């Protein structure tokens, strides 16, 4: 892996890691925020309960005063003890501000065992400061009879709950944060590794190593991407292999006539070969071979570049097939082959007559080459709702299964030789009409070429470019 690919992979890893850690931090922050909300609501609930307890004590003191018509010390002690059990330290004053009873005095009046128990359970006796008391006025029939001063003693259960909650959240944040960081690294690496492999493979392919493939396991989108990448690499490898054959094929097609012509001309110049009519015919034949090769290539590249001006018409398929069968009648009779036409008179095809004839000529010519004497070639067609289906069937030697995906590739050269442009031109012309072509064949059992043309061609028209 070169430095550029390494930087790309490292950059992707950092991005994934940053996103995952950010998500983990967001989760931790959400947990802390939730803790604050829970503690706040719990504190508000505790304060409300304390206010309720103070209200109970106020109501009890006012009721006691109403019954006794004055402040009774014994009843005040009972109220102070009861308030202490509710978690309140109290001090009662009369309307003149004189202290009637307070919690410490009430505790002093109890037995040592009971006093110790109350102190232990309520936390009384601790110094909470003067400002912790809250004053609640006492009324009877709308007239103020005194004042209750209250300070709320800490509830050990509430403190225990908050401490445990904070501790649990702290431990959870530490543990989950550590797990999130570890998982972030693992997941970031897991996500970036396939991209790193694709980047490395793409770099090697760009350097000419078309045999490079990636191995990505799983069933997610990255796996599908890896499979698509491998298919693309395979197609590039196949295309490159075919392109490498271009020079060899062209050299083979061009070398033979050029060598013959050169040898004949040198012989004539040296006086070794006589310059008679037969020699001139031979040179003319070789020149014609060169012309045919160049014309085939020009025809293919024109078809591929879509520089054809298609003149689309509704054509009677039966008439077109009959004319083509008649054109090949002599060649077929010489080889002992029968050409049949199976199509009704109502079948119409939307196509350019010259280009469609060229398609048929290429397919029939190929069929004549591979069909043995006594065989047959059948031109068929039928109308469908979406257009027209045309078939060219022969009883020839068939096509090997491994060759079927390649026969329409440019410059693919079969065992029978040739430049490998005929079927490539056929496919380009069919594509130009917006149609499709496919082949079904078995070795030794003939072949069936099926062409599908749409009812109306939507192919844009191009002006013909001469060269």
Please describe what this structure looks like:
- By secondary structure, this protein is α+β, with helices and mostly antiparallel strands.
- The chain folds into 3 domains: 3-158, 2-Layer Sandwich (Beta-Lactamase), CATH 3.30.450; 222-304, Helix Hairpins (Orthogonal Bundle), CATH 1.10.287.130; 313-454, Histidine kinase-like ATPase, C-terminal domain (Heat Shock Protein 90).
- Helices cover 58% and strands 15% of the residues.
- It contains 11 helices and 11 strands.
- The chain has helices at residues 3-68, 73-85, 103-108, 112-122, 156-206, 221-270, 277-304, 317-327, 329-335, 353-370, 422-432; strands at 88-94, 99-102, 134-140, 143-152, 313-316, 338-342, 348-351, 376-384, 387-394, 436-441, 447-454.
- The strands form 3 sheets. The protein has a 5-stranded mixed β-sheet with strand order 6-8-9-11-10, covered by helices on one side.
- Helix 1 packs antiparallel against helix 2 (73-85), helix 5 packs parallel to helix 6 (221-270) and helix 7 (277-304) runs parallel beside helix 11.
Jot down its keywords.
467 residues, alpha+beta, Beta-Lactamase, Helix Hairpins, Heat Shock Protein 90, 11 helices, 58% helix
CATH H-level superfamily title of the largest domain:
PAS domain
CATH topology of the largest domain: Beta-Lactamase
In this structure, how is the largest beta sheet organized?
Answer: 5 strands, mixed
For this structure, what is the CATH class of the largest domain?
Alpha Beta
What is the average per-residue confidence, as pLDDT, rounded to a whole number?
A: 77
What's the number of domains?
A: 3
How far apart, in Å, are the first and last alpha carbons? 47 Å
- Cα gyration radius (Å): 50 Å
